[in-house]
Amino acid sequence: MNVRDYISSGILEEYALGNLAERERLEVESNLAKYPELRNELDAIEEAVERLLERAAKTPRPELKTKIMSSLAARSKEAIVIPLPGSGVTIWKYATAASVALAITSAALAYMFWNNWKKAETNLTELIAQNQQIAQDYNVVNQRLDKIEGDLGIYDNPSFRKVVMKGTKAAPDAMASVYWNESNNEVYLSIQNLKQLSQEKQYQLWAIVDGQPHDMGVFDGDMKGLVKMKPGAGIAAFAVTIEPKGGKESPTMETMQVLGNT
Amino acid sequence: MFEYLYDHYSGALYGVASRIISKESVAEEVLHDAFLRIWERIESYDPGKGRLFTWMLNITRNLAIDKSRSKEISRDRKTGDISNFVHSVDRASPEIQHVDAIGLKEVLDQLPDEQKFVVEYLYLRGYTQSEVAEEFNIPLGTVKTRLRLAMTALRSKLKIT
User: Fold this and answer.
1) CB of A4 within 8 Å of any CB in chain B?
2) Is B45 on the interface with A (CB under 8 A)?
3) pLDDT in tens for each of the 161 residues of chain B?
4) Which residues pair with A58 in a beta bridge?
5) A13 CB-contact burial (10 Å; exposed 0-12 / middle 13-18 / buried 19+)
6) Chain A residues within 8 A of B46 when measuring between CB atoms
7) H or E, element range at A9
């Protein structure tokens, strides 16, 4: 049987409506037991109907609830208390009444336990999902904390020199800084204010050594904290330009955003 | 336990009964009988065959349809303009909040007219597919296809996967 075709025939909707003839109904039920996919589909259909009809709900008058509850109470009394005249079969009648009452009670209890179990299962699933979410959040926070601790080590380290790069005429408000360690040549970049770039563009950091620009690597404008760039020695100045994504071999001077002498 | 069932499902079930039978006292009688039957047969409900609500819904709907066909009620479910039923729910007893009925209209209005029609008649008015087909001269296969399309759309509107 092709499950997809079976589903798209709409027979499950008919089944849920209770409109199928006995033979078709039994056939659907045996298929449901065989194919879990059908089971899921039916459940989704039924849930949709339930949600729809919840929206179409109409609250009955409160008196009706009282009436139904008292009819129920009267009915269960009938089931349990059967007045019997003294006769040979009395004991059997009482026994039957008692066993019927027992059967009703145990069915109700079984249903109640089943219901509670379902509820507990749902709660458990929710809790597991929540737990996973918290673990994920914790990891994210932890990674950020690690990063901040690492950054702090650099800010605090006296071997690093801070070089502030100020905005050029093309971008007077722009500002970024470089932390440069002259003893081991490490270079870190920190963005104070650089505008958002389009998808095709990236910023590129340059180091001016002996009057020549050297590529120090590309970065995006939305980076947070310190970004490690390429190492460099004997640097006289740092500058940032806007270049096509991936950077260029030599800087496009017209797009220079910030510049700072060491 | 019974109260739990009543409190959770009586609104939706009464909504169904009262749209099949417009006379309030008869609709209440249907809900009354439906809950007695639900409680009597609760042990025969098989979760493997569908949701509890579907089972309760079919009991209620069948009782309401039987009642609407009996002599005391002259098939009044066939009269009245179908497009007004959402509003008629809104207009009923003002002391009761029908916030949900507004949500219903929003959801249904997103469906194409011919699908909305099928959903209204099958789920809200308690028609069978063959009744819709015969009464409105729509081929039975078309009714089925529209129902399937409507349910697929409804599931995405209601965010059920």
Assistant:
1) no
2) yes
3) 678 888 889 999 999 999 888 888 999 999 999 999 988 888 788 887 888 899 999 999 999 988 888 755 544 444 444 444 443 443 333 333 344 455 788 888 888 999 999 999 998 888 888 889 999 999 988 999 999 999 999 888 887 76
4) none
5) buried
6) none
7) none
- B60/A49 Cα distance (integer angstroms): 14
B43 interfaces chain A, CB cutoff of 8 Å: yes
Distance from CA of A203 to the nearest CA of B (A): 42
The shortest C-alpha distance from B38 to chain A (Å) reads: 11
The two tokens of residue A42 are: 């039916």
Phi, psi dihedrals of residue A143, rounded to the nearest 5° = -65, -40
Is the complex ipTM more than 0.85?
Answer: no
Which residues are CB-neighbours of B37 under 8 A, at least 6 positions away? B59, B63
> Which chain B residues are closer than 8 Å to A68 by Cβ?
6, 31-32, 35-36
CB contact under 8 A, A72 and B89: no
Q: Whole domain around residue A210: which residue ranges?
A: 160-261
A192 burial class (0-12, 13-18, 19+ CB within 10 angstroms)? middle
Q: Is CATH 1.10.3430.10 the right assignment for the domain spanning B103-161? A: no
Amino acid at A220: D
The H-or-E segment that residue A164 falls in is strand A160-167
Query: Which residue of chain A comes nearest to B126, CA vs CA?
Result: A17
Burial class (CB in 10 A: 0-12, 13-18, 19+), A42: buried
Q: How many CB atoms lie within 10 A of CB B152?
A: 17
How many distinct structural domains can be found in chain A? Answer: 1
List the strands of the sheet with A258-261, edge to edge: A212-219, A201-209, A237-244, A258-261, A160-167, A175-181, A187-193, A226-229
Q: Which one of 1.10.10.10, 1.10.1740.10, 3.40.640.10, 3.90.1150.10 gives the CATH number of domain B1-91? A: 1.10.1740.10
Question: Does the residue A35 lie in any domain?
Answer: no
- Alpha-helix runs per DSSP H in chain A: 3-8, 11-17, 22-34, 36-55, 62-80, 90-156
Distance from CA of B71 to the nearest CA of A (A): 23
Contact B151, B144 (CB under 8 A): no
